[in-house]
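Usage

Read records sequentially. Each one opens with the input sequence:
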Amino acid sequence: MKNRLKKLNIFFIVLCIIISSIIPTAAFAASEDDLRSSVVSIASDEVGYTGTSSYSKYGDWYGYQGGWCTTFVLWCFNKAGKQNGVTLNGVIIPRGGNCSSMISWFKDKGRYYSPSKYTPKSGDLIFFDWTGSGTADHVGIVNYTSGTTVYTIEGNCSGKVKAREYTKKGSKPYNNISSIIGYASPKFSSVSGSSAGKTTTKKHTTTKKAKTTKKATASKKVTTKKATTAKSTTKKTATKKETTKATTVATTTQAATKANAKTTTEQSESAPLTNLQIYASKYDLQIGDTVKLDYSVEPSNTNAVVGYFCDQEGIIDIGANGEITAIGNGTATVVVCANDDLYAQCDFIVTDAVGEVTTVGGSNEESRKVVDTRIDVSTTQANAQSVLTRLGVNVNMLSQNKQLYIVPASIAGVTVFISIFIAITKKIKKKKK
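and closes with the structure output:
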C-alpha cells in the first residue's frame, strides 16, 4: 500500500512538471498595457532630474555624452524591460542612435506615423521639428492624450527631464502641436504575454524628483560602448541579415541642411554583425573642409546596410559613402547604423576658415585679396574648447559655474599684480640709494 502511494505521488509530481513545461511562459508575462504603463511610469519618476545640455546620467549608462533626448528614451525602455523580464531595446525600439536614425528604424518596420493620421498611445515615441525644416530635432515619450492635447515626458529640455503638453493654441514651437512631426509606436504586443488590446490614455502622475546635478565629465569625440577602438562606440550583436545589391550603392537624402545617407555594402557571405567601428582622418574641421567618415564591420565578410544620420542643422552635410562636408560653425554628432542594429557615433567640431586681408598696389589702389591662412587651434574659441575637451575639461560645466571661479581668479590676479608692482618698486628704491 505504501509503495502504491509512493508511486502515485511520483506520478503526480512528474505530471505537474510536464504540464508546467507545456504552458507557455508568455502567459505570465506583462501585458501590452502593463509594458506601456511601465515605460511611462519610469519616465515620469525622472521628471525633475537635472544634468546639462550635453551631460546626463543616461549618457553614463549609454556610454556617450552629448545631446541626450534619445538616450533618455532608450534608458527608460531598458529599465522597463528589466522590470518586466523582457528585452525591449533592439526588439521594439532601436538599440541606439539619434532622432533621424530612430525614425528610419521605425519606418522600416511600418511603425512610424504622421500626426494627422494617428492617435498616439501612452508609451509611444513623439518626434518634434522645432525649426520647420521637415526633419526631427527632438524626441520624447507620450504620457497620455486628452482630446487634441498631447502630454509628454522628455529628456534634455534645457538640460532637464520635464513633463510637457502640446495644444493647438500653445506657444510655438515648444508647446504647439504644429511642432510634432510624427509618432513611432513600439510593437509592445510582440514581447507581451497577451495580444494587443485597448490601450488606455490614463494619466500618469509625474512626481518631481529633487534636482540632482551630477558632476559632469568631459564628452569624448568618439566613444566606445564595448571593447572597441578609442574612436568608436558599438552596440549589441546584430541578429538581422540583409540582402544587398551586387555593387556598392549610396543614396543621400537631405532635408534643409540636415544630412542622412545610406550605403549598401556587398560582401562575399552573410553572417550576423558582431562589431562596428568608425573612423575619420580628423574631427576638427573648418568650413569648406571635406573628410570621409569610414567604417568597418566584423565579421568582415558580413552584408551591411549602413546609414549615416545627423540631427544638427547647418553644420555638416553628409554625402554618399560617408563624405562629411563642413558648412557652418558648431558641433555635429553623426550616428552610423549598421543593419538597424549596431550603432556608433562621433562628433565633428566646425569653425570658420580664417582669411587674412592684405592690400595690393599703391596709395590710389583699393584692390585687396584674401589669403587663406590656417591658424593654430589655440587662437579660436571653438578650437580651444575642443582642445580642452580632449584634455578632460568639461567646457559646458566651466561656463555654467563661472561665477564660482571668476571672482577668486580675479582676486588672485590682482594680488599677483600688486606683488610684482611692490617688488619692482623696492628694486628701484634700492638702485636710487
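Summary fields computed downstream for this record:
- Residues 290 and 325 are 4 Å apart (CA to CA).
- The mean pLDDT is 74.
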